[in-house]
Amino acid sequence: MQHAVERVDELVRAGRGAQVLQLNAVNLVASRKLAPLADAYRQADLLTADGMGIYYASRVIGRPIPEMVSGVHLMLEVARLAQARGYGVYVLGAKPDVVGLAVSALQSQFPGVRVVGYRDGYIASDAAAAVHEGVDAAGAEIVFVGMSTPLKEFWIRDHAGRHGMAVCIGVGGSLDVLAGLYTLAPQWMRALALEWLYRVIQEPRRLWKRYAYSLPVFIALTLREAVRARFVTLTRAHPR
Description:
The protein has helices at 2-14, 25-31, 35-43, 52-60, 71-85, 96-109, 128-138, 151-162, 174-178, 187-191, 195-202, 204-237; strands spanning 18-23, 46-49, 88-93, 114-119, 142-146, 167-170. By secondary structure, it is of the alpha/beta class.
């Protein structure tokens, strides 16, 4: 987390558009069928592990990452950074009545944080250009994008690559959490990589099919990659 926040600070001070994304097991599986989504993850200036599944998988395949850095926790730490540095923040995403609550919660938790604008994430195709221009005109250094995948990844790709100087950070459903609609999984469930189950319990109709398909595929991919990594290691250690 410390490294991630420091990297965001570096990107803001660099004064150029930058892309910060999170990757979890579901999105990794989705990216295998959606090439533009996979490209978005590869092109990100910073990519963090948004789930213990990715964290543990990195260890199974022998390329461990330091820790999980979820969208909601990164958002809070970057808001703390913005509060300290005086960075302007724009919040984009969620439903119209939810984003206002999320912004109020953010300002309450971080008094003095400079929110230069916000709007919901339901953007009609003929309004996309106006939204882009509105975000640019607000003069934000940081934009929190709370949309679903792949909408947030594509919006960040298009905005950070086409417009101004903001560091665009995908935060997924973090705005719903800030607004009080949902809660985060307790620490013991996160440690056991069961945050997906906690999410399904809160939104069963929307999520159960997604996880029922994605998790077995993710486990299979992880095991295949682990075998491949082991084979490469043995081949290098005992060349013919």
